[in-house]
Description:
Blueprint: H1 29-56, H2 62-97
Helix pairs in contact: 1-2
Amino acid sequence: xxxxxxxxxxxxxxxxxxxxxxxxxxxxxxxxxxxxxxxxxxxxxxxxxxxxxxxxxxxxxxxxxxxxxxxxxxxxxxxxxxxxxxxxxxxxxxxxxx
Length: 98
């Protein structure tokens, strides 16, 4: 069985100039970063408020207090992982430029 390589279709690379530099959401990087920081900070503040209501006896149950604290912790961990990936990608791009 022989394979005729010349009969395979040619593959053309995509036109790099037609790719827009803005992200899919249309916002700038600083806007996206600021929004993510605000969300993480909001979850942290909500967890702190929940703990304070629980400690003062204002009717906050332990279950929802723990859930709010865990959500805050998970959001912060996810944010840090995304930050690490962005820094790693930036470092790789800087290595390519040299």
